Amino acid sequence: MPRPSSNQPESRILKITGLKSFPVADAEGNKYFFVKVYTDAGIDGIGEAGIRIWGNAIGKAVEHLSEILIGENPWSTERHWQKMFRGNFFPADKVYMCAISAIDIALWDIKGKSVDMPVYKLLGGPVRDKVVCYPHTQGKTLVGLVDNCKQAVDDGWKFVRWGQPETHGELEYSGDAGRLEPLKSMRLAVEQMGAVRDAVGPDISICFDVHTRLDTRHTIEMCRDLESFKPFFIEDPIRSENPASYRKIAANINLPIAAGEQWASKWPFREVIEQETIDYARIDLCIVGGITEALKITHWAETHYIDIVPHNPLGPVSAAACVSLTMASTNVGVQEMPKRPGTFATDLFPQQIGWEDGYAFCHDAPGLGIVFDEDAAEANRVDPQGWVPQLYRDDGAQTNW
Description:
Largest sheet: 6 strands, parallel
CATH topology of the domain at 121-364: TIM Barrel
Distance between the termini: 49 Å
Low-confidence stretches: 1-11
């Protein structure tokens, strides 16, 4: 079937020449999974996959998807997205969606570089000059948590954030034999939030991440006890497999709800947006399908007055893609930013997005505005497989980390 004609001379149309996966670690040992897309014009783009510990499977998906991308114009992002998602009849699963996300972000980076424009301008921005962010301030003890939150405020952050506490002695555990007993964890969470609120005062916003660790009735009970501390939102209050269950949560608590980081396309967001059972959409650009899909969800959420809070626990590419989206979108609550940009992975990314006084921003530079050192990445390849820390109830039953 003939393709639509282009006014652009054939010799000037970019063509994709290759894709390459980079499972790497930075100088501090933090692991990432990046995907680089190359073109015949020497313009390349960089993307990032969201579930790095599935790296071997994602790498195979990238190889498979490259079969339908090499020789194509990188500007046709919507066409490529549809082909990658639907082209094998069965809709893409979460592994393939991580690969699609990384590829799509890289294609947007190429598009910006090819016309000497930042991605956020291609998306219609900026609608704001900078984006307020929250860091990760968790601690292994109550004292450690409070100290980390106070330090973040001293450093200029306007938000603090931590997660549902574990119950085996350390509140944040990184091994394979952790414990989380719900009733005890709920009591600890109330104690934590009270202590942090006393320490940082009323003007600092608190984000609290249940991290899918509690059942519906436990979350409802705990949230009622947390209301007096006025957190900015409660994140992932229940598991994500059944979006319909958010109806019960929304009807029984009086706190803002943030959810969505585990959903891998627009379709799981449909119910919670249309029924308005969440207040903040936690879109993960590196899982949901990249910038192309995230932009659709963002505009959809806007029609229901739902703000986005993009999920960003990853590396400099994810951060740049998220801030590109939030600088170009009206309905933004806050941006997750675990660490200050430019203070980590600088061996891999000597140029990253900017940060000042609790806000992040993209530079007025082509594409995502970051620089990837491919030689450094090649020298720091790692095995991309792994497991998150494991949590169990006191009776030995598996529970969510």
